[in-house]
Design a protein that fits this description.
The structure holds two protein chains of two kinds. Helices cover 66% and strands 0% of the residues of chain A. By secondary structure, chain A is mainly α. Chain A has one domain: Orthogonal Bundle (Arc Repressor Mutant, subunit A). By secondary structure, chain B is mainly α. Chain B has a domain of 97 residues. Chain B contains eight helices and no strands. In chain B, helix 5 packs antiparallel against helix 6 and helix 5 packs across helix 7. Chain B is elongated and about 120 Å long. The termini of chain B are far apart. Classes of the chains: A mainly alpha, B mainly alpha. The interface between A and B is large, with 48 and 35 residues.
Chain lengths: 192, 195
């Protein structure tokens, strides 16, 4: 059975009235869902940044869209829905971390090191990655969420501000402090 | 873009490489198919008319209901009061029951009735705002009427148990009596009796 939301996104959903009265999502809601599906990689990257495990990130990305689907009737326009999408991504990831403490650090599933790298380079990169993950996971929560959304999700300041209900200035200052902390920790590891 | 990549800090490059590697794996995954499988077990979103009411609408409905109940209760209370008033009006002749026997001093029936009315009025804690007769005048009227020390006890004046509507009705009657100069007449008569 093909799901109705598999419609091609047209990006033209501007909060038009929902005239569909039958069971299931209306055509406009389906278009909205399809539009939100375009951000799945961003959602995945944010999940990865939070949970530090690629399989969990995949699962969490699905969780996010399952939740979006369940709430489709309450969404109206794509702009507001995008901010909401990133906000629930953050919430789902934080809930996951709360349940899964201590965080699972899985490095085997995806190896960022090129195949051509020598075993020594490979080992060093893995160590650095381990330290980076530790550095991120020990950031204060408010800084961590801004850091992950920016560095992993590559969201703009305004988007992060919209998703977290903050002012862009606050986002910038938190991000700056988070980046400084991460840099310091990485530098101290490299120096040591 | 390349220039920007050159300026990346080592940890930023690490994040970028890690994310790219993870994304490659993610892209190989048929995300939509996987999501479809999960969505089969998710209840379809209900159409708008079957969705639960938003909190504001629920609150407004509850307020309206409370208001409706209040209005209805007031209406019932008003109906009850009118009925009681009618009963009182029907029993008005009973108020002429002689109280002379209960009074510590001999008084005629009319005086006793007025005293009883005024006493009832005082029990209701009412003041004749803007009308003739203050509390002091009422007390004076009572004292003059009895012309003897001591005030009637509750058991003597059985009217304590009167309904509010009855008291209000009596208050109206007392006002009328005062307006007609009844009280002054009583005072004068009692005074002349004392003399």
């Amino acid at each position: 059975m093909k799901m109705k939301f598999m419609l091609e996104p047209d990006g033209q959903n501007g909060g038009e009235p929902d005239a569909h009265d039958g069971g299931g999502p209306s055509p406009s809601a389906e278009r909205l869902f399809a539009g939100l599906l375009e951000f799945k990689e961003t959602v995945f990257r944010i999940c990865l940044g939070f949970c530090r495990d690629i399989r969990d990130a995949e699962e969490l990305t699905q969780d996010v869209y399952v939740k979006v689907f369940a709430k489709l009737g309450t969404l109206r326009d794509l702009q507001a829905a995008r901010a909401w999408l990133f906000r629930i991504t953050r919430n789902i990831c934080l809930n996951h971390l709360r349940r899964m403490r201590p965080p699972i650090l899985s490095l085997d599933e995806c190896d960022p090191v090129a195949d051509s790298a020598s075993p020594e380079q490979r080992l060093e990169t893995r160590e650095q990655l381990q330290v980076l993950k530790q550095a991120i996971s020990t950031l204060p929560r408010r800084m961590r969420e801004v850091f992950v959304m920016r560095e992993y999700g590559q969201l703009r300041y305004e988007e992060i501000a919209g998703a977290l209900g903050l002012r862009p200035g606050t986002v910038m200052s938190r991000l700056s402090r988070a980046r400084t902390l991460v840099s310091e920790r990485m530098r101290s590891f490299n120096d040591g | 873009m390349d220039e920007a990549k050159k300026n990346l800090e080592p940890w930023e490059r690490l994040i970028e490489n890690e994310s790219q590697a993870a994304l490659e794996r993610f892209r190989r995954l048929d995300f939509r198919a996987a999501l479809e499988r999960r969505l089969k077990f998710v209840p379809r979103p209900a159409p708008w008319f079957r969705r639960p009411l938003p909190m504001a609408a629920g609150l407004a409905a509850a307020l309206l209901l409370a208001l409706g109940i209040s209005v209805f209760t007031s209406f019932l209370a008003m109906k009850r009061e009118v009925r009681e008033l009618k009963e009182v009006l029907m029993r008005l002749p009973e108020l002429r029951t002689p109280l002379a026997a209960l009074s510590p001093v001999p008084v005629d029936e009319e005086t006793a009735r007025l005293i009883r009315l005024s006493w009832v009025f005082r029990l209701a804690g009412k003041r004749l705002d803007g009308g003739p007769g203050t509390d002091e005048e009422w007390r004076s009227a009572l004292e003059t009427a009895f012309a003897a020390p001591g005030t009637p006890t509750a058991s003597e004046w059985r009217l304590r148990g009167m309904a509010k509507t009855e008291r209000l009705l009596l208050e109206k009657r007392i006002r009328a009596l005062i307006a007609a100069g009844e009280l002054q007449r009583l005072r004068a008569r009692n005074k002349s009796n004392q003399l």
